[in-house]
Amino acid sequence: MIALIQFENVTKRFPGGHDALRGLSLVVEKGEMVFVTGHSGAGKTTLLRLIALIERPTSGQVIVDGQNTSRVSRRKIPAYRRQIGMVFQDHKLLYDRPVFDNVALPLIIAGLSHRDAARKVRAALDQVSLLNKEKQFPETLSSGEQQRVGIARAIVSRPKLLIADEPTGNLDPDLSLEVMRIFRRFNEIGVTLLIASHDIALIDQLGCRRIPLANGMLHYEEEEDVVAEYAERLESERGRTG
Amino acid sequence: MKSADTLNAPRSSGPIASWTVRHVSTAIGALGRLARQPFASLMTILVIAVTLALPSALHLLIKNTQSISASWDNALDFSVYLNGDTSIDAARRLADIIRQRADVEEVTLISADEALEEFRDQSGFGEALDHLTVNPLPHTLVVRPGSASTEASLNLLHEELGNLPEADFVQVDTEWVRRFHAILDILQRSIAIGAALLGAAIFVIIGNTIRLDIQNRREEIEVTKLIGASNAFVRRPFLYSGLWYGLGGGLLALALVRYGLYALEAPVTRLAGLYNSPFSVLALDFGESMLIIGAGVTLGLSGSWVAAARHMRRIEPR
Fold first, then answer.
1. Which domains does chain A have, with CATH numbers?
2. In the predicted model, what is the mean pLDDT of residues B283-304?
3. Do B228 and A96 touch (CB under 8 A)?
4. Is there a smaller number of Cβ atoms within 10 Å at the N or the C end of chain A?
5. pLDDT band, residue B9 (cuts 50/70/90)
6. Which of A27, A55, A18 is CA-nearest to residue A36?
């Protein structure tokens, strides 16, 4: 398998000395659908922000699709971000324009004409079952529908990677499951997804891999047991030889 | 329907075409945004228009005054009053001599008798003059300098005419015309300085308007940057807003000046009629109109550019 996202010993220290991530190393492979879990403050959002280059790591390397993000200059950030679809808890829609224009925005930014964009926009809206709402303004939509508009905008330019920060944070369980099903469908057509969520029940239902974070580090409870066992065995072997 | 679609929609449009489409749609979008706040936009445009119209109107005033006084230039004659004892023959000879100077175009002799006759006709003292036994008026030579005369050559001519033994007194009737022109030059320069200052004011007004606009749309800028918009993309609509403000201001300034001229035209024509003058008011010509519009557009673009460059960079997704 090929790694799409790779963190190598990444530390993010914020001004004031708070460490959001401490020496984090992880790999997300191409075509995976992975959840980053953990309590609020565990470093989930920081992890996603490093991938989106909203933040830079204090030390360590973040490699996305073979590209070392530390080598992406300020001027190249827009082009870099256009390769990644992003979904936010608060949708981050533009409320002064209709659904169609919101979804078309990434294509317009990429330089497509309105007409060339239309077909792709309708395809994206179709995938989130909002084809009949393209002329409405976001405010007239329910929270779940607004989130689906955000998802349509994230996938309209067919990115390889989609990152989502608490995409179901404001939704009730039924709507949450619906959003996750939509993500699942994208995953089935080859999109890699990295989703931050604390909704453990929902994640277990989907049966995806989890990256559990605590205090900015990986925190596998099962793994801890394995490590402790291994240390114990080492200790006893050393006792025998010595 | 289907055939029209396939005809009108090329599979891929060239880079220049897509660049044009992008700019046209951004420009229209920016115009639409201004139209959605008609009162605020009109206020800004009006301020710019008044600021542009003020120096333009003053410029027109100077230009019209110059066109009137240009005809006075030809009247820059020297009147050489000869001594009372100079005979008419001596006066004629003198006129011939002066006429031969290179810097003199024409010399007209007004004899004492002619002068008295003219005075009698025009002054209304006809009857009283009949009682005079002697003509008190001298012969006069009206000397018109050549058209290539300079300030220095005029001074020299003035001095040499005064030094003639037959000359009693040399009068430059139109000395004040030259002073008047000097004053006009100063006024013209003052207007240029004033126009530059007002231009700076427009720059600041537009810059400030765009700055507020950027602040109001901060969230939108953040979101578009978050999904991969470049600084140029985010800046573009604001540049077009500045351009529209400047263009609107320039056009409205032209309209204001034109309306002002229209209001003045009738009384000026009446006044010119009273002086039997064919004078008619000069309007802004094509070049001047383009200059005003160009100034508006340039100041609008540069003001919004500076504002956008200064404030846009600080807005990054959080």
1. 3-83+160-241 (3.40.50.300), 95-158 (no CATH)
2. 94
3. no
4. C
5. very low
6. A27
CATH code of the domain containing B132:
3.30.70.3040
Is the torsion defined by CA of B71, B72, B73, B77 positive or negative?
Answer: positive
Residues of B in contact with A78 (CB under 8 A): 225, 228-231, 233
Q: Answer yes or no: pTM beyond 0.80.
A: no
pLDDT tens, position by position, A51-99: 999 999 999 999 999 999 999 998 999 999 999 999 998 899 999 899 9
Can you tell me the ipTM of this complex?
0.84
Residue B117 CA to its chain's centroid (Å)? 45
Contact of B150 with chain A, judged by CB distance below 8 Å, is answered with no
Neighbours of B4 (CB within 10 A): 8
Domain interval for residue B263: 24-71+179-312
Interchain pair B229, A109: CB under 8 A: yes
Q: How many domains, in total, are found in chain B?
A: 2
> CB of B233 within 8 Å of any CB in chain A?
yes
